[in-house]
Amino acid sequence: MDKLLNLQNVGVIRDGRTILQSDDLHIPLRGITALVGPNGAGKTTLLRLIHGLIEPSIGQCERPFAPHESALVFHYTPMLKATVREHLTLLRDTDRTIRDEAIDEVLQSVGIAHLANNPAQRLSAGERQKLCFARARLQNPKLVLLDEPTANLDPNASDDVEQMIAQLAKDGKAVLFASHNMAQVKRLATHLIFMQDGKIVEISSPGVFFKNPQTKEGSQFLAREFIAQ
Amino acid sequence: MSSTFLDAFALLAHLDAAIVRIVITSLHVSIPALILGTLVGLPLGAWLATEEFAGKRVAIVILNSLMGIPTVIVGVLVYLVLSRSGPFGEWGWLFTVKGMIVAQFFITTPLIAALSRQLLEDSWKIHRDTFMALRLPYFSRLKWLIWDCRFSLTIAILAGFARAISEVGAVMIVGGNIDRVTRTMTTAIALETSKGDLAFALSLGIVLLGIVILANIFIFVVRQIAERRYG
After folding, report:
1. Structural domains of chain B, count
2. B10 CB contacts (<8 Å, ≥6 apart)?
3. Which of A166, B44, B60, B115 is 20 to 30 A removed from A196 (C-alpha atoms)?
4. What is the pLDDT of residues B157-211, one digit of tens each?
5. B127 and chain A: CB distance < 8 Å anywhere?
6. Per-residue model confidence as pLDDT tens digits over B109-144
């Protein structure tokens, strides 16, 4: 059965500006869902709202997963002055059952086991993102939220990250990722949410959205994207 | 003047017993005061850096002002509290090393708290989202924040040490500058200079300067090694 994110007339207001608003919406979170829309559409705000980093200013948000059941990866995560391994051991403060073997395993799974004792601040952008994915895996979430996970990555690193996203879905985790890369959305996503001006405009599938968007805003967005490409 | 310097170096070369005793007393006061000041000042700085509450800005202004509080004022206040008629007079800590440690604790704590607050606040702004997204508990967030800034925080602790070891007002008032008991380098320098024993005063001044320079070199080396290791 689908896990539903229920938004009941939700509004998120910051500095007097409404950055996210919705009517009564029930959004299924399953498979790999892409969150697309122009800059300032409210994608990051929605991810933060689902993760529980922010609460709505008005309305109600019923999250489909308990707080510890979701993990959020930003497009850029600043590293501590600590080793790669220490970036994972810090999760023991939230879950004391995390063993060294589990840490080794996730490092192996994302391909940075050889960097375990290196300073994390010296990692490349791609390696940093792999470390963040390792941390997300170690949290063992049911829902993984990714905010533009391949922004600023080179094609090789982007490919690696896409494979990791696909692997998360294979492992039975729901993935919701924000992206500006429509080719990536076509490759990865099984479902799609289109946002604009802080509103969820369309909930669809990539096949339908790219061939026959159901809204005028969706059509205009795609037209702009294709011209840009 | 040159003979004064020669005499001062001669005293140091012969490891004059009085000088050694005074140096040990100074360190016996300043190091525990620094440790206590760090144990209180660092968490206080971390709390101020990470928490939002009404009056936070006022608290920061007060803390920053306390950084530069004249040590004689601290001395007088601690004297009042520890004097026989004061609330803690029965402890008998006035004119003892314990009393001097208390006085220097109140000098080092605000300095370490204010400097660490600034350093940790900058780091908090960078890592807040990550820590919150990982749902790290409150004390875990403080721990990792301090861990992230550990090399920069050595500067705050060094500043606390330099202020403690070189202050004269508070230890003079609270310690009473009693020979073989509470005489520190700074109080001895003040006394010997007024008595005209400039060589003795100068030799203590050289030791004081040497300790501060050594502490700086130690911190510099630690930071260099750390930066090489952690980037």
Report:
1. 1
2. B199
3. A166
4. 999 999 999 999 999 999 999 999 999 999 999 999 999 999 999 999 999 999 9
5. yes
6. 999 999 999 999 999 999 999 999 999 999 999 999
Residue B32 near residue B100, CB atoms below 8 Å: no
Chain B stretch 174-203, residues whose beta carbon is closer than 8 A to a beta carbon of chain A: none
Residue A96: name the closest of B143, B137, B145 by CA: B137
Residues of chain B contacting A72 with CB distance shorter than 8 Å: 133
Considering only CB atoms, B130 lies closest to which of A51, A77, A139, namely A77
Domain-embedded: residue B177: yes
Query: Is position B129 within any domain?
Result: yes
Q: Is residue B21 part of a domain?
A: yes
User: The domain containing residue B73 runs over which residues?
Assistant: 15-182
What CATH code is assigned to A3-75+141-228? 3.40.50.300
Q: How close A139 comes to chain B (CA, Å)? A: 9
Provide the sign of the torsion angle of the four alpha carbons A40, A44, A50, A54, taken in this order. Answer: negative
Non-local (6+) Cβ contacts of B56 within 8 A are B48
Cα B93 → chain centroid: 20
CATH number at residue B115: 1.10.3720.10
So what's the ipTM on this one? 0.90
Give the A:B interface size as CB pairs under 8 Å. Answer: 54
Q: Is A96 on the interface with B (CB under 8 A)?
A: no
- pTM comes to 0.85
For chain A, domain boundaries: 3-75+141-228
